[in-house]
Amino acid sequence: MSYSHLEPINERARLLVIQKYHISTALQESIFQELTTLAAHLFGLPVAFLSLVDGAQVYFPATQGVPDLRVLPREAALCSMAVHQHATLVLNGISQGSPSPHWQTAQRFRMEFYAGAPLLLEQQYAVGALCLSDHQSRAFTAQEEGVLNELAAVASQAIATWWQYRAEQGDANRWPAVQQLAIEDIHLLQALLPRLRAQHADATLHVVQRRLLNLRETVTAKLPPLPPASSPVRPPLGS
Length: 239
Description:
CATH topology: Beta-Lactamase
Helix content: 40-55%
CATH class: Alpha Beta
Strand order of the largest sheet: 3-2-1-6-5-4
Shape: globular
Order of helices and strands: HHHEEEHEHEEHHH
Number of helices: 8
Distance between the termini: 72 Å
Structural class: alpha+beta
CATH architecture: 2-Layer Sandwich
Mean pLDDT: 88
CATH superfamily: GAF domain
Number of domains: 1
């Protein structure tokens, strides 16, 4: 089956990038489930998921609220549309649309609202999407779209950082430490949400977006070099 109507103009290079970064393996890391869960909590929605849009299939390695969503044909996944247009896609009243593979998927999972922000690698290749869904239509403001875009940027940076540490000789054991720091930041933000909503309801998204920028810096940051394995352990000064 041809998927040319769903392919961005850089489709061939995009598929090579998916292979280069070993994205199907990267997305098994726990940070991506943590980010997906955070997305659902931030927007108070029952469903969130992260996708990898491959040549013929769309995989969902991280989900919240849709445990049965694992893989779909490309023509049946709304994320394919976000990748095709290379920008955040927002849909409302999906059940009112004309029958199509996308419509059938929305019916199956009771999706009336969908928002998906593309995961961008090397700033130009959309390899998947971080998505939200609800069982009823809802407004989605420009500020909310900005927060979703920032979440997707954190996920994209996590893929790049995971690959960088994996590719650099001697750095493979650094990724778990970076991931743990990022997950701790995610948990802190989740714990902060109730207080933010109670005390600063109007400013919650602004604070969240600032925190997500800090989270992206955590994922980007390089750890200090490890000492060589043969280096002696120095006693503390004064001992």
